[in-house]
Amino acid sequence: MIDRSASNRIVGAFVFPEFWGNSSRVPSNLAALSDLGVNAIMTESNEYDFSAIEATHNSGLRFYAGVACFSDHVAHFHSLKEHPELWPILESGERRPQMEWYVGMTPIDSRRQEVVLATIGSIARTYPIDGLFLDFVRWPLHWEIELRPGRRKPLDSSFDPATLVKFEAACGALPGGLNSIPAKAAWIRENRLRDWIDFKCQVITDFVANARNILKDARPNAELGVYVVPDMDGMTEPLTGQRIRDLEPLADWIAPMLYHNILLQPPAWVGATLKEVSEIARAKTLPVAQADSNRDPSDSADWGPPMSAENFSACLSQVETQSDIGGLIVFPGSALLKGRGRVLRTMTQAHR
After folding, report:
1. Residue 4: per-residue pLDDT
2. What torsion, rounded to 10 degrees, do the Cα atoms 204, 256, 195, 109 define?
């Protein structure tokens, strides 16, 4: 059983694969993070290295792997190019366009699901991980940009033929005479919107349940985490299919990605949004707090305007108002090594 006491709260740092690039600096960087109060490393990659996990454990830190379930942006959309049926189709009938680094995939495809589940099993059997987080376990949405205030409501997806066939099998046939995807999508949204949302949520919930079984069979003590999109004006669940009350029983950690600066929101938004999740997930809630606006000046991703240390401190204060949560994850963790560590140290020392 996971110890959910305040003294055993997780203080995680999410690091990208480049963190492990200079092996000679990894031990000192891990030690520096530990000195700041970090006790867990979260990362995500297509492959892992025993030496990285060993160094993490030698520093007294837990190691959590991650899998990008329904996105292949790291592989530069290789799967989408080889299997165009995975490309999400908008309610307009058009392919979902690439937005920055993201396209997404339709999560209904059984072959894609099998590939991801096999990857989870392989990681769990091969490496001494403490847990694994499911990322991009949702219907397609580049939520960091599309849910910003003032933007048009994102178009729903995916209305690809395979998804429509499975929706009809689950919820009943569509009327005849709907001869185009826009016509079918419009009819569904007008007449069976609740069925459509429930269907999307069930697809994600079923997949997470299968992922949990695979992980626990391979490594019974490994913890399953799920990165979830924060709610924005009631749009998140219908668009992503992430129904937190259904995912909570399946996961050891529910991790809302509270990237307030990317979403162009003030730090106060963090507290209110986190409360909505913690009322359901309680001590399983593990918020991901944004620490800085850019990890790399050459990166094309828009992480919001310049973000001060004071802004990060205000964000952490919002997290601190939730007493019954399981801790937090700092994103990106590398920011703690570049001037943001003092803010975190102040918070973690208060709990010692």
Report:
1. 54
2. -30
Select from 68, 36, 37, 41 the least CA-distant residue to 53.
41
pLDDT block averages, 10 residues each, the chain of length 352: 64 96 94 97 94 97 98 92 96 96 96 98 98 98 97 96 97 96 98 98 98 98 98 97 98 98 97 96 98 73 93 96 93 94 84 58
Q: Contact, 107 vs 138, CB < 8 A?
A: yes
d(CA 286, CA 274): 9
For residue 93, give the amino acid letter: G
- As a whole number of angstroms, the distance between CA 225 and CA 247 comes to 10
Q: What angle do CA 41, 17, 130 make, to 5 degrees?
A: 30
How far is residue 40's CA from residue 333's CA, in Å, rounded to a whole number?
10
Instruction: Report how far residue 130's alpha carbon sits from residue 39's, in angstroms, rounded to the nearest whole number.
Output: 12
CA-closest candidate to residue 20, choices 10, 35, 34, 30: 30
The CATH number of 6-349 is 3.20.20.80
C-alpha distances in angstroms, 339 versus 305, 315, 333, 335? 17, 16, 11, 7
> Which pair of structure tokens corresponds to residue 348?
């973690």
Token pair in block for residue 309:
């240390």
DSSP 203-217: HHHHHHHHHHHHHHH
Q: Does 332 sit behind a cis peptide bond, omega within 30 degrees of 0 on the bond before it? A: yes
CA 243 to chain centre: 13
pLDDT reported for residue 350? 64
3-state secondary structure of 277: helix
Rounded Cα distance between 352 and 175, Å, is: 63
